[in-house]
Amino acid sequence: MANIVEVRHLSHRYSVDWAIRDINFSIEENGILGLLGSNGAGKSTTMNIICGVLNQTEGEVLINGIDLRKNPVEAKKHIGFLPQKPPLHPDLTVDEYLVHCAVLRRMEPSKIRAAVDAAKERCEITHFSDRLIKNLSGGYQQRVGIAQAIVHNPRFVVLDEPTNGLDPNQIVEIRGLIKELAKDHAVLVSTHILSEVKATCDQIRMIDHGKVVFSGTMKEFDDYVAPSSFTVTMACPPSKEEFASIIGDIENIDDVAKDTWRVRFQGEDDITERVVAASIENGWRLKEISLDHTSLDVIFAKLSGKLKNNVQ
């Protein structure tokens, strides 16, 4: 599959400090790529450069083969951007706003009406065409924001924290819309929320301290950050020594509460299935067992350490 975006040796410096250093990755024509990073990691700088909001200090960005810095007007025709705070005009109707955005995108006047209607239909906001934006719910305002990003039918759509501030039902709806867009667009979702990336993305690029510390598929990421501990509660627990001997692959067992342990292990996460089977066989009366989710901070620490070791 061809690449719609090429990021090569991208670096940017604010005053004397480098925000990002030697960032390299590409984005294919279809699918969803997650740009994951904690606050201050360099995620927003990278995204703003890719969208043409900020000029980089070093490196180049190609959008559909066009150098974004050398020919920004042509390159930006292929980019749709939804910032973290949607650039809405609350006193305009949905139709007035989307027509305004299409004009800003320098679309041919004869094509604007059809383009606006298509964007509204795609985002399921056609029934709000004459509604003032300020009278829409947060979820529908976000849909209007996405509609302005796709009104000119760009090949590459960038969404910054697209579910930020939405309620659980709205989050599910927006995730569904993002997946639907990815059928015929390349979509970049920038977020600091690991669960958001896992719920929507096919590929992931993780940035920490201005460098890419992970680049791969979601499966590769899940394999790398697989849980290494679980919490178990038993009504009739054995001794820790007996438990470790029967289950195997146990590194450490810590008390969490009465009859509840946190168990660190090596190997595959099918260890929980072995615990269930052993509990039935030995009468431990298992009450609850769950794998512990690895926190984003721990993941960043592991990946950053791996990067440093590779550099050394």
Largest sheet: 6 strands, mixed
**Cα Rg:** 24 Å
Which percent bin holds the helix content? 25-40%
Number of helices: 11
Structural class: alpha/beta
Strand order of the largest sheet: 6-7-8-3-9-10
**Low-confidence regions:** 307-312
Strand residue content: 25-35%
Distance between the termini: 34 Å
Outline, from the CA principal axes? elongated
Number of strands: 14
| Order of helical and strand elements | EEEHEEHEHHHEHEHEEHEHEEHEH
Mean pLDDT: 89
Question: How would you describe what is shown here?
Answer:
The chain is of the alpha/beta class and 312 residues long. Helices cover 37% and strands 29% of the residues. A six-stranded mixed β-sheet has the order 6-7-8-3-9-10, sandwiched between helices. Strands 2-1-4-5 form a four-stranded antiparallel β-sheet. Strands 12-13-11-14 form a four-stranded antiparallel β-sheet, with helices on one face. The protein is elongated and about 75 Å long.
